[in-house]
Amino acid sequence: MTAPLTDALTGQLIVSCQAPDGDPMRHPDTLVRMTRAAQAGGAAAVRVNGPEVVAATVATIDLPVIALWKDGAESGVRITPTVRHALALVDAGAAVVAADATARPRPDGSTFAELVGAVHAAGALVMADVSNLVEGREAASAGADFVSTTLSGYVPGPPRAAGPDLDLVADLAAAIRTPVVAEGRIATPAQAAEALAAGALAVVVGTAITSPTALTRSFTEALGCP
Hints:
The chain is an alpha/beta fold.
């Protein structure tokens, strides 16, 4: 299953159709409509949050669904934190389960490798969300089907860069055979193209496409609006 999906995603755009807690866009029907708009715009896959939205998306569009389940404190493992969360996403129809693959302890005491084994046994693939090169190497060794730079700058460590971590994309692409996906702070088509040039298989874009609240705030802040 990995090879056909890898081929389908090569050089392509994945749109992250999510909204944070409390955002007016955080409604299953609205989020599914985002996925339909992404498909109409040419996205090769979508990344969505939570079993309910996964199931509704799978029933609505004909694109691979990369699923995660954000649960828990922002300061800890929050992206698909347990094996239970991962398997619920597979049951909802996810083709790929995205999960935190950082060195932080998981709340159920499982290892990332155990999560990978459980998801593979259930018939789906795993995307490892990492923050640095060491984590990417370890995730690849644990059997992840894709390694994504999602968490670069979002865990304790070096200060978060304003733009995408293209150095990490390039380092991962050179160090592992597992396909690398660029995600995180990709704000323009030019940056997306740069990520592919750096060695990414595909590019995930979220806020710059699907977050009117954040985009509006960027304009009001630039204008000094009260």
